[in-house]
Design a protein that fits this description.
This protein is an alpha/beta fold and about 90 residues long. The chain contains three helices and three strands; from the N terminus they run αβαβαβ. The protein has a single domain, classed as HUPs (Rossmann fold, 3-Layer(aba) Sandwich). Strands 1-2-3 form a three-stranded parallel beta sheet, with helices on one face. The radius of gyration is 16 Å and the shape is elongated. The N and C termini lie far apart (about 40 Å).
């Protein structure tokens, strides 16, 4: 509980809004909930691309709504970048 309170205190002291890269998974959901608990301006953003699951954006929107946080979905065509075509081994470093 001490660690959670430290995170919330840290987030409360930020002088800017918080934007969470939100997949809807456990880690980003916990972070989004902590950010919301800290108050202030909080939003969530989910990227929808060829690498996302079909329902990930919808599930993320549902969870963000339950938490009470604004949620945006950014559509990204990762194959516009020709370096990613063919799924190269170094794709995570591009």
């Amino acid at each position: 509980m001490k660690a959670i309170n430290k995170i919330i205190e840290y987030l409360k002291n930020l002088e800017v809004g918080i934007c969470v890269a939100f997949s809807g998974g456990v880690d980003s959901t916990v972070l989004l909930k902590l950010a919301e608990s800290a108050g202030g301006r909080v939003s969530a953003v989910t990227v929808r691309s060829q690498f996302s699951g079909k329902t990930e954006a919808e599930e993320s929107a549902r969870i963000a709504g339950e938490i009470g946080v604004h949620h945006d979905v950014l559509d990204l065509d990762v194959f516009e970048d020709e370096r990613l075509r063919g799924n190269p081994v170094d794709r995570c470093y591009i």
